[in-house]
Design brief:
The protein is of the alpha/beta class and 292 residues long. It is built from eleven helices and ten strands. The chain binds 3-hydroxy-3-methylglutaryl-coenzyme A (HMG) and magnesium ion.
Length: 292
């Protein structure tokens, strides 16, 4: 078994990590978190999302955060967008990379974005001429690739169909979401067997939440299959407000450690990464302590 020589870590802490915390943190603290992540050399950072503040009040300051972070030339900065309004917000803030999101299960799509999977693709079709005009890089998320909090097990066929639609839409990268952390190495293997008989491994990223402590073993499975892109959150913070039971993303520190043990290069400064993780953990745990 040979693992890839290098992988790309996509840092989603500032978006996925901060979108469901009970007591929002200040705009300045968010900016500092992103700046520390940039300093650690993460190749891609999902900075925020341009979604409805009624749905995700925690990220109300997407514009402010985006305009004040210090950007470096080696990091790709991405914003999550659900619809045309979100895409326009991201463009006004100068993003060259956006992530769209849908799901492999209907119930989650409805709860998370108030639309069916079909309707989410109608939204994307309306956005496509805009992202093409602006030559944006577009990543597509598929949530609930293994288990849905409302429908339980999700079939590989359902995931395959959504992946095919995203490919037809022209996205450059597809992140497979284990939204509530219920994937296990066997189910990761099953899905990858099915997807990789149709698509190249280089198309995919894996996005594991670590609710039950399976994320690192799942990532090992992904490495076996030649997947080279992994989403994670420094400090292991995170969760989706519309996915009961979702806890934090796998920690970027833990993924970087695994890679280092296996001689897989990430280009990340692990000391600076640890500082960013500790910084955000200290702030979010302080807030939780106040809340309880
Ligand atoms: P809706 O209520 O159906 O939308 O929500 P609407 O078009 O009827 O608009 C309602 C209001 O929202 C209007 O304002 C719009 O202007 C406004 P009002 O007239 O009432 O004042 N609005 C917006 N405001 C700001 N930015 C926008 C926007 N769009 C409409 N882009 C909508 C539909 C998609 C907007 C809503 O459901 C939403 O924002 N959902 C986002 C939920 C979310 O962010 N979930 C977490 C991210 S996904 C995730 O975590 C999973 C992932 O990590 C992978 C995994 O783990 O599986 C990616
Ligand atoms: Mg997520």
């Amino acid at each position: 078994m040979t693992y890839p020589a290098s992988v790309k870590l996509v840092e989603v802490g500032p978006r996925d990590g901060l979108q469901s915390i009970e007591n929002p943190i200040s705009t300045e603290e968010k900016i500092q978190y992103v700046n520390m992540l940039s300093a650690a050399g993460l190749p891609e950072i999902e900075v925020t999302s341009f979604v409805s503040s009624k749905w995700v009040p925690q990220l109300w300051d997407a514009t402010e955060v985006s305009s004040q972070i210090e950007q470096n030339e080696t990091t790709l900065y991405t914003a999550l967008v659900p619809n045309q309004k979100g895409l326009e917000g991201a463009l006004e803030s100068g993003y060259k990379s956006v992530a769209i999101f849908t799901a492999a299960s209907e119930s989650f799509s409805q709860k998370n974005t108030n639309c069916s999977i079909d309707e989410s693709f109608q939204r994307f079709e309306a956005m496509k001429p805009i992202w093409e005009d602006h030559r944006l890089r577009v990543r597509g998320y598929v949530s609930t690739c293994w288990v849905c909090p409302y429908e339980d097990a999700v079939s590989a066929e359902s995931v395959l169909k959504v992946v095919q639609r995203l490919v037809d839409l022209g996205v450059q990268e597809i992140s497979l979401g284990d939204t509530i952390g219920k994937a296990v190495p066997d189910s990761v293997e099953k899905l990858l067997d099915s997807l990789l008989s149709n698509f190249s491994a280089s198309l995919f990223a894996l996005h594991f939440h670590d609710t039950y402590g399976n994320a690192l073993e799942n990532i090992r499975k992904g490495l076996e299959y030649g997947i080279t892109i992994y989403d994670s959150s420094a400090g292991g913070i995170g969760g989706c407000p519309y996915a009961p039971g979702a806890s934090g993303n796998v920690g970027t520190e833990a993924v970087a450690h695994l890679c280092s043990e296996e001689n897989i290069s990430t280009g990340v400064d692990r000391d600076l990464l640890a500082k960013a993780g500790k910084f955000i953990q200290s702030i979010t745990s302080e807030k939780e302590a106040v809340a309880s």
